[in-house]
Amino acid sequence: xxxxxxxxxxxxxxxxxxxxxxxxxxxxxxxxxxxxxxxxxxxxxxxxxxxxxxxxxxxxxxxxxxxxxxxxxxxxxxxxxxxxxxxxxxxxxxxxxxxxxxxxxxxxxxxxxxxxxxxxxxxxxxxxxxxxxxxxxxxxxxxxxxxxxxxxxxxxxxxxxxxxxxxxxxxxxxxxxxxxxxxxxxxxxxxxxxxxxxxxxxxxxxxxxxxxxxxxxxxxxxxxxxxxxxxxxxxxxxxxxxxxxxxxxxxxxxxxxxxxxxxxxxxxxxxxxxxxxxxxxxxxxxxxxxxxxxxxxxxxxxxxxxxxxxxxxxxxxxxxxxxxxxxxxxxxxxxxxxxxxxxxxxxxxxxxxxxxxxxxxxxxxxxxxxxxxxxxxxxxxxxxxxxxxxxxxxxxxxxxxxxxxxxxxxxxxxxxxxxxxxxxxxxxxxxxxxxxxxxxx
Length: 441
Hints:
Radius of gyration: 27 Å
Number of strands: 8
Structural class: mainly alpha
Number of helices: 19
Strand content: 5-15%
Oligomer: single chain
Distance between the termini: 47 Å
Order of helices and strands: HEHEHEEHHHHHHHHEHEEHHHHEHHH
Strand order of the largest sheet: 1-2
């Protein structure tokens, strides 16, 4: 009956339900992949009839199928692909199972003809429009700033100053990675900076100077747990209650700053040196905090492009409606994104606490703007669905290089923010134009 749960139906009937659901939505374009695989002969004939009827009514229908006979009987036009390229197009009476099989067997020859210079140009265009192209641009800009500052002052790229820059870069990377998680699902977290500062204040209570090492570790775990719980709280308000993310996180920013001031009206509460010793401990010449940030970036990048979770989060951010139709659980992924943001911001806050050395309610607020800037510089789509951890890392590197260079030039923060604002606007405009060009093609 109509009340029977779909999960209790046979595989063929489940497939008919799915196809029927999409047909009933009357889309302008319907894409079906192996639509009759696993169904009986009667259902197959009905699916054919329904697809043809919709096509005659003006709906564009794309069928992906490995059965040449099915394509011969169903399609008005057949494109044969090999290695991502169209190697042959068949129309009308040309569409036969034999022609489709022949095109498949000779695909290598067809692809090889006249592809030399064209493939080179296509590779360049793909690179220009890829998710990772911003990393190359940002790396070049960062190198220019570092080398230029070193030419002005030979003290800039000393081992000590490089280590300091890497430690503060790690803080930016964790904050930006957390922000990227929320942007990926089409939201934004304005409370990142305030949460990082609140983590510093909490650490001044849970990781006091002179505390035994096990207690210091336990205090750090407690701080991270608080960050995750706060992210969960925000995620539930946004996903379950439907409150706008910008309102929730703006209120969080104000509330967390107020709470930090209530706990630490003045800078106080010395934090145990074990935290800074741990984050600054060299691993292959790189501070442990930065080494952890690099591992994080590698893991996130792999998850984004090689895992089901990454694909689902990108899909939810790209089109919540399409994600809901596919049963991706958009609300669940929203909550997960804010929990991840809370955890990563908590780690960044602990690194910041180690460098500050005491509880202060005034630190951390700038990391909201900094994290957003790093993600935007990395070419992420602010409306969701598109981001790269590697590009976010390079965006953070450019920010930190600019900040460190400003200090060596004895410039105040206004110079630093002016440069970053100009670079961010130019980068966002450039990446947007490139992507619109790709969509137009």
